[in-house]
Amino acid sequence: xxxxxxxxxxxxxxxxxxxxxxxxxxxxxxxxxxxxxxxxxxxxxxxxxxxxxxxxxxxxxxxxxxxxxxxxxxxxxxxxxxxxxxxxxxxxxxxxxxxxxxxxxxxxxxxxxxxxxxxxxxxxxxxxxxxxxxxxxxxxxxxxxxxxxxxxxxxxxxxxxxxxxxxxxxxxxxxxxxxxxxxxxxxxxxxxxxxxxxxxxxxxxxxxxxxxxxxxxxxxxxxxxxxxxxxxxxxxxxxxxxxxxxxxxxxxxxxxxxxxxxxxxxxxxxxxxxxxxxxxxxxxxxxxxxxxxxxxxxxxxxxxxxxxxxxxxxxxxxxxxxxxxxxxxxxxxxxxxxxxxxxxxxxxxxxxxxxxxxxxxxxxxxxxxxxxxxxxxxxxxxxxxxxxxxxxxxxxxxxxxxxxxxxxxxxxxxxxxxxxxxxxxxxxxxxxxxxxxxxxxxxxxxxxxxxxxxxxxxxxxxxxxxxxxxxxxxxxxxxxx
Length: 481
Ligand SMILES: Nc1nc2c(ncn2[C@@H]2O[C@H](COP(=O)(O)OP(=O)(O)OP(=O)(O)O)[C@@H](O)[C@H]2O)c(=O)[nH]1
Prior knowledge:
The chain is of the alpha+beta class. It has helices at residues 15-35, 47-58, 65-82, 87-111, 119-146, 155-179, 197-212, 222-231, 234-253, 269-303, 316-325, 327-330, 347-354, 356-374, 397-413, 441-461, 474-480; strands spanning 336-344, 379-384, 387-394, 416-418, 421-423, 427-434, 467-468. It folds into 2 domains: 15-182 and 191-299, no CATH class; 316-480, 2-Layer Sandwich (Alpha-Beta Plaits), CATH 3.30.70. The strands form 2 sheets. Strands 2-3-1-6-7 form a 5-stranded mixed sheet, sandwiched between helices. Strands 4-5 form a two-stranded antiparallel sheet. Guanosine-5'-triphosphate is lined by residues 310, 343-348, 351, 356, 359-360, 363, 385-386, 460, 464.
C-alpha cells in the first residue's frame, strides 16, 4: 500500500509522541462516533475503526501490542467517563479492536508491497478484509450488546445491524484513507468546466434517488461514480465514493430516500428495482468502454514507440511517422531524397572482445556521431542491431554522396572510448537517391531502402569502410570531399 501522506504525528523514533497521538486520535474519533450514535447503542457511522486501521497500515511501525493496547484503553476510559464501565464496554470495545487489528494486519501482510497502480487488486482486498474484520468483530460486538440475560432471538438483527455498519463504513472509508495524498497545487492541470461533469452526474443521480425512491434508487449513482473513476485521480474518486455512500446511508436512515414506500412520483417497488438494475447493468459497459480506450492507447503507444531506447535516434516506426509528418514539410519540390543504409563493420568482434556493454556504448556513440554529421535536416534511425538508416533531402546526388562520405570518414577517425579502452570502427554504406515525383516520401523511401541495401552489400563485399552507389562517378566526388 502506498504511503503517500505520512501521518506527521507518527514517527518510528518518537515512541512517546506516537503513544500520546494514538490515544488522542482514538479518543477524538470515539467522541465523533459516539456523537453520531442512534438507537440501540449502534451508530449510523463508526469511523473510528476504519481510521485506526488506516493509521496502522500507513505507519507499519505502529503495529505493536502496546499501541493496540493504548487504543483499547482509550476506548474503555472514554466509556467509563461518559456512559458506563464494565464487562459490556470491555467486550464491545474489544470487538472494535478485532476489526482494527484484523484489517490492518491483513492489509499489511498482503498489500504493503504493491504499488498504488494495483488499485483494482487492492480494492478487492480492502473489500474482503473489511468483510472478514466486520464478521468477526460483529460477532463479538453483538454478543457484548446482548448481555447474559437478554433474548437471544435479538442476536441476528443485532448482528446484521452491527455487521452492515462496520462493513459499509470500512469499505467506504478505507480506500480514501489509504490512498489520500496532499494535492500538488503546482502540478494541477488547467480547469475546464467539463471536468465537473462526472461529479455533477453523481449529484444529479443522488437527487434522482431522493425523488424516485425505492430500493433500486440506491444504485443510481453507480454509473456516475464509475465515470469519476475514469476521469479523476484515485484519491478524489475514493473521496467522492465515500461522500456519496455516506450521503445515501444518511438519506435512507432519515427516510429522505424511502426504500419501502412510493415517493412523490407514483412509483412502485418494481419500477425502482428495474431502474436500479438497469443502472447497474450499464456499469460494466462503461468499464469495458474505458478498457477499450486504454487498449487502443496502448496499441497506439506501442506503434509509436518513436525512438530507439538505446541510441535515442528514431526507431523504424518513428522514422515512418517522421517521413509521413515532418519530412514532407522540409522537403522542397525538385530536391533529391537520399537514403543511406549503414552497417558497422565487424561489430560482432567488439561484443566478443570487450563485451556486450561495450557494444552498447559504441552503438550509442556511433548514433550520436551520425546525428552530428547529418545535422538537423536529416533523419537518423536505427533499424536494428548495428544497422542504421539516414534519410535526407539534398539539392543534388553529389551532395548526398558527400554527406555519406563525410559520415564514413568521421566514423573512421573517431576514437570511441569504453572504460580504459580506445576503439576505432568503420562503417559500410549503401546509398540510393531519387527525386520523388508523384510518390509520397514514404513510398520513395521504401523503394530507395531496398536499393541502398543492395549497395550496402556491395560495400561489404568490396572490403567494407566505403560508400557504394550507382548514381555518380564516385571517384570524382570522393576526390572533392
Ligand atoms: N552490444 C550490442 N550488440 C548488438 C546489438 N544488436 C545486435 N548486436 C550484435 O551485433 C552483431 C552483429 O554481427 P554481424 O551481423 O555478424 O555483423 P558484423 O560483426 O558487424 O560483421 P559485418 O556486418 O559483416 O561487418 C552481433 O554480434 C549481435 O549480437 C545491441 O543492441 N547491442
